[in-house]
Every structure is written in C-alpha cells, then in structure tokens.
C-alpha cells in the first residue's frame, strides 16, 4: 500500500487543549428541554425549578389514631378529676389521615382514652388546640419550590412532586448519541465469529456508558470499510442524533476512512490527542454537531469515552459528574512512560497494613480484562519518563475505598483455584510466579503469596525458600492444595510425548514458563537429573506467565507441549500426562495471622464449597488444606 493512502499526519494535541478547542464549537442551541409526565421523570434533570400546585396535606388531618375533640372542652381534666365525654357530642372516633371536621381541633391518642359504656369515654388530661393534627400545608404549601433547576430527580423527589400535585414538568432533553461501529472484520453475532473476525463489543459498552451519563444510545450494526457507505451512514446519524461516535478506523490504516470523511462533510478540529491509550482520536464537527472518532482498541475506546465523550454527554444531559476519588498510593512496580503523551495506567489496589499499594496491570490497549480487573487508574503526566517503584502516586479509584480495604492482596504464582477463591471472597490476585511473589512480600506489597517452590536438594516444597528469603522473620505457611503437574498435550497425544526425554526430540516443540515460576523450577529440576541441556529443548526460551496461557498455546498448535497443572489442561480439553503432585501453598507474614482477611481466607479454603468446586476442576488433593506451619523465629 502506498504511504500517501494512509493518514500519517496524526498530531499530538494536549488533552485539555483538545477539549477546549472541541467544546468551544458545541452549540448551546442543541441543548434543549421538554415537558414530560411526572411519572416518567425519575433520573431526569429539571431545566427549571418545580413548584407545588397543591398544599400537602390539603386538608387538616389526624396525625394519630384516637378521638377528635374540641380542645377547649377538655380543659380541666386531670387524673383526680377526669372528664367523661360523649361520642357525637364531644368527640368522634378518628384514624390517622382522616379529615378533621369543624368544630374539632385536637386529637387524643386512643391509648390515652379510657372507654366506659358504649358512646362514653374518660380522659385524664386536657388536649391543647391542634395537638396531633397535621394542618393544611404542613408538608408543602402551594407555590413552594419542591426542587430547583438542574436537579436530578430521585425516587424521594418523585414522591414530593406527586404529593405537591405536579403532573408535568420541564427537564433537559436526553442527548441522542449515534454509535457507529466500523470495520469489515467486525461482526455482531457470535455465530459469525470466524478467524479474522472480531465481535463488536465496544459499541455495546458505549451503549451502557451513554445510558449511565443520561443520553439515549442509538447504536447501529457494524459498517464495513467502504468510503461511500460510511459517509452516508455518518450523515444519516448526524441528522438523527445530537452526538455521533464512530468507533475504529481512526488511525493510519489504509481503510481508516473516518478522518477523510469528516474532513469532506464537515471539519476535523483535532486528529491525535496526547493520551495513551487513545492517541488517534478524531474530534470533528458535521452540520454543527459533534462527531468523535474513537480508536478501536477496547481500552482506548473506554479511556477516550471517559475523557472526552462523557463530559460532552454531561453538557447536554446536565447529569453531574460524580466527584472522582483520588488517593495516594505506593507504586509497587516501576513504570516507564513516553514523554510524548499523558498515560493512563490501570492498577490493582490493596491496603497492606496502612499502605495503599498500587500494582500496575498490563498496559496493552486491547486487554479489556485490565479494565475489568482494575481498582483504579493512575495518570502519568506527559512530561514524565515514568515512575520508580516505591514512589507515591495519585490514583483515581474505580471501586469504593471500603471494598479495597476488604480485599486480600495476593501476589505470586498462578492457579485456577485463585479465581474460585476470588469468587467467594474479595481477593486481588497478581500473577508474577512464585519468586515474584516472594519478592513482592519482602517489599510489603501483599498479604499472601501463593508459592510452589521445589527444593532440588531435598525434594521438599517451599520451606527452604522461606528460610532463605525471610531470615530472622517469623512467617506462616498456610497449606494450600496438592496439585498435579504434568505435560499438556494435544488430544490423542499425536506426538507420542511421555516424559522429559521426549522434549529433546527434533519433532517436539515446547513452551516454557517465566523465570521464577515454580513450574519452571520443576522443569529445570527434572531435566537436570537427566542431564538434558536447555538448548536442546526447542521452545525453552518461549515464556508464558500462566498455566492457561501454556494450555492455549498447545490447544492452538503453537507448540506440542508445555508443563502445567491438570486443571488447566482439562479446562482447555487437552490430554495430560502426570509428572507428580506438588504443594501449592500460601505464604503469610506471621503478624498478619490475626487479620480478618487472613482468617476469612483460611475459612474459605477449608470450606466444603471451595473443596467441591476445586474437585470439579480435577487434579487437586486437599487433605492438609488450611493447616498452618510456622517458619522462622
Ligand atoms: N501506523 C500506525 N498504526 C497505528 C497507530 C498509529 O499512530 N500509526 N495507532 C495505533 C493505536 S495507538 C491505536 S489505538 C489503533 C487505533 O486503531 P483504529 O481506531 O484505526 O481501529 P482499527 O485499526 O480498525 O482497530 C483496532 C483494533 O480495535 C479492535 N476493535 C475495533 N472495533 C471494535 C469493536 N467494535 N469492538 C471490539 N473491538 C474492536 C480490534 O481488535 C482491532 O484490531 O491503531 C494503532 N495503529
Ligand atoms: O492510543 Mo492507542 O489507544 O495507545 O492504543
């Protein structure tokens, strides 16, 4: 493809500057109001103050069950000198909410009334005028303001509006937001998901976000990469909506037409914003309406929506932005960043002792799970080359601080059982291998570290490593599970792989785990025993960070085998050749053992629910699960 066919002139406009340029072109005439029925007004925002039509109550009413009396006629009643009064003449029986008719002007509660023969009662104290009566307008007086303008109607407001006799009111019109997913590779039905095709998930996320911020989403089916079709679709969407979002096709690909089309039918204000992810964003105006080209990668899509589309929708819907909660956290891993743009990094958060620890998640713009798992987002300014581990950073919370405080932070080796535990209790689980976990624990960044480290001299698991890396410190090892490790192989074992010796065969390709992973140590221990050179294993250098990644690699024929746990092989419907059981345990500093999160964790792993669920995964033994061994001083 020729270079001139591409949009290679993507600028790098500062985010605030881009916002300023764009928002100055938004015409107020499109921000209007409508009159609606009060019954449909929940969560709408008033465009003007709303006043009561009626008083409430609109008649004098009883506030208690009892009798209505003329107060003046009860004066003088005492315990010594009670008054006997007659029904119909001196009083009438009344219930809460009933109309108080003339001449009655007070209510005596039924508990204070002594009933005598039929039609006569005795009272022991006088009533004062208006006692236990709700006078007209006690709640609301006609013409009183019920709610001000720019107020989002809550259920309790709805009650007051109806009590005040309001049947119609004026609210801001919800902006209609056209959503156009683009790309010939994008499909919307699961059955069309062939190789090379991508399911349209972004536009569904946009629909949800538009609703959340008070707009009406108008999503259409994905549009293929065809200049004329896309142009006509955008023109139609501009006609029918207040705001138009075009997803993907925003960067420099040969079929990234969005910017050319907006330039032809309107004007491009900005192409390229200094934000990562989200750089190739397009901000344009067509027929006076805002049109935004949002980059296709899911994380970029979300970040651009939150940074630029959300404030735009709020400008129309008048929904108030929730105050962002920003917290200071200690960064657990160094982050390197480019001077070219501001970077938004997703992080996991957890309180370890009183320190809020932020652990960066993967930064790939295509990794949606990094958003799902994120507890917060930290911003690295454009003029920074990165941040060192141990430094304080400001993090915008995506979850409540209380839920972060409840979360047990685990950093270490990966196992499928961690997903099960996190489904039973709040757990944030970082997967960096057993040695990575030990290092994180030494830095005080986690409560527990799942480890499975084989001592090549003794054949024992974990204890010698704890003694070595936590000299002079009292540590606890909570026994986890025994899990079956072995070779994951394709169904039917077409390469006839049976043991470690087969790994050096010409026709066998392998995939390894990262350095420091317990499974890697297990491999090295076994090949050492057999005097196998690592260079003789094809694929020894190809490293994966989880058991599931190894299983996927085998499943997709990207290698013939890899070492890993049976549950991962079973989950991917692979065959499995057992090598042996190993101990997957949890390291905890002794002083945390009284912490409620740890107590809860032990209860969870000892529970029947947990044991039943891991039985279904296959390849686990649980006879010592939850037992605690003390290691060190
Ligand atoms: N030579 C250059 N290449 C790229 C640049 C650049 O500056 N120069 N920018 C990169 C960056 S950064 C991003 S972000 C992407 C933006 O790409 P586009 O907006 O043009 O989107 P596509 O290339 O069509 O798609 C990218 C990717 O997004 C996913 N996608 C698209 N639509 C959807 C959808 N509706 N639902 C879910 N996922 C979707 C899909 O995985 C695509 O592969 O460009 C880089 N390239
Ligand atoms: O800007 Mo792209 O959104 O970094 O991935």
TrEMBL record:
CDD domains: MoeA. Residues 178-315 form the MoaB/Mog domain. One of its GO terms (molecular function) is molybdopterin molybdotransferase activity. One of its GO terms (cellular component) is cytosol. Keywords: Magnesium, Metal-binding, Molybdenum, Molybdenum cofactor biosynthesis, Transferase. Belongs to the MoeA family. This is Molybdopterin molybdenumtransferase.
